[in-house]
Write a structure and sequence with these properties.
The complex is a heterodimer of chains A (about 160) and B (about 100).
Chain A: H1 2-23, H2 27-47, H3 51-75, H4 89-111, H5 125-134, H6 137-157
Helix pairs in contact in A: 1-2, 2-3
Chain B: H1 5-25, H2 30-55, H3 59-89
Helix pairs in contact in B: 1-2, 2-3
The chains are: A mainly alpha (about 160), B mainly alpha (about 100).
């Protein structure tokens, strides 16, 4: 029962933080709300027997990616609340209708479908690592190549006197 | 007590929808648009981890890890592109970025 209550608390924190993040007009505040949301998400991952994914979520998402966003906002000097403007109400209307359609169809599809019986076995870090480096060893190589390409691309785009 | 899979899927659906709204609405700021993409990918990760919890298989967690790695690569490239476009056009409004051609 404690797990369910914790799940509801973390889910509420996450939804509220995300709502505040997407309606905030100041980018720095939005990033800080988003970090709150990612911490709540890491808590949910821990509840769902995924401690490693929870750790990576905190270290990479909340730590590295959000700090990268913050650096870019500071570097480009975008954090001026008096210049920032929220989109007009009419801009929110069509996305709200479209996404409410998407959300209602997802929820109804999940409700009217029975999932085959599960086991709820706890996954230890050992089992996770065995499968990761055994069956999915190729994926690790692909990810390392992809990160290398990202570094090369970022260096190319960020070089001095770009475009000439 | 365990958390039912349906509640996890509904939570992930809500998070994904919020990210979709963020992406559709914030055309005036490319940083907020990227934030919306992050939120959507987080919702997808929640579904993978929830499925892995329900069926006791580590495959879902491994795919969540791949999504994290993919996102970090994507964000570094996208932010480098934002810095590049800001230097050339002096704006972060997406509507002004309508050309790919080098001038």
């Amino acid at each position: 029962m404690t797990m369910n209550i914790l799940f509801y608390i973390l889910a509420a924190v996450m939804i509220v933080a995300t709502l505040l993040a997407i309606t905030e007009k100041h980018p720095v505040h939005a990033i800080v709300y988003l970090v709150t949301s990612f911490f709540a998400m890491a808590g949910i991952f821990y509840l769902l027997c995924a401690p490693l994914v929870a750790m990576f979520e905190v270290i990479i998402y909340a730590g590295a990616v959000m700090v990268l966003f913050m650096f870019v906002i500071m570097m480009l000097d975008l954090g001026h609340p008096e210049e920032a403007q929220r989109p007009a109400f009419i801009t929110w209307l069509v996305p709200l209708i479209l996404t409410s359609l998407v959300l209602s169809s997802v929820v109804s599809a999940a409700v009217f479908r029975t999932f085959p019986g599960g086991s709820n076995v706890e996954i230890t870090a050992r089992a996770f690592a065995t499968v990761l480096f055994g069956r999915y060893g190729v994926a690790i190589e692909i990810i390392s190549m992809q990160l290398l390409f990202a570094v090369v691309g970022a260096l190319y785009l960020g070089r001095k006197g770009g475009g000439k | 007590m365990t958390v039912p899979l349906i509640q996890i899927i509904i939570l992930a659906g809500i998070i994904f929808s919020l990210g979709l709204i963020c992406t559709l609405v914030w055309r005036s700021n490319v940083i907020m648009l990227l934030v919306g993409i992050e939120i959507m990918l987080n919702g997808a990760m929640l579904v993978f981890v929830g499925g892995s919890y329900r069926w006791g298989a580590p495959d879902g967690q491994i795919f969540a890890l791949m999504i994290i790695a993919m996102t970090s690569a994507e964000v570094s490239l996208a932010l480098a592109m934002v810095v590049y476009l800001q230097r050339r056009h002096k704006t972060v409004n997406v509507d002004d970025f309508h050309e790919l051609k080098d001038q």
